[in-house]
Amino acid sequence: MILLIDNYDSFTWNIVQYLQEIGRDVQVVRNDVHTVDLLMAIESDAIVLSPGPRTPSEAGVCLDLVPACARLGKPLLGICLGHQAIGQHFGGEVRRGGLMHGKVSQISHDGIGIFQGLPSPFPAVRYHSLVVEDVPASLMITAMSDDGHVMGLQHRQHPIFGVQFHPESIGTDHGKDILANFCDML
What we know:
Rossmann fold, 34% strand
């Protein structure tokens, strides 16, 4: 079962649908309903942090879930705001990067992990105004946009991944494949 933390975003249910189509059960919990301890006590194979408005510091339990997942070896995928929470927790800077609401960018990637078997580049839809910069050494940059922003992160020691773009958007090619690659690692 995948535990999906909903950051009050309309795209959350697209993620649920894709994960269910891949064959995974999904439990959705809002980011301000339970403590980290209660969420970590739920028997799940992995956690997904959804997109959402605002900043990682305003995303309920998300920032505190990142170190909990790292400590316990729980696989974690952050999407958009979730990606930013991962970057911020490990020491990256989350900054304004220009308004990218509904914009398509070409995403180039390293072809490993969640990007395994995907063409590079591929088009992806972005809905954000914040980006992760000054990525710390504990994180690898796994994908970049054609305008030079970090679009993918992976922790060097823990099963923690992030994507800034929206794999669940119908305008993102291979979005379901990215989620399937994450699930295949579980």
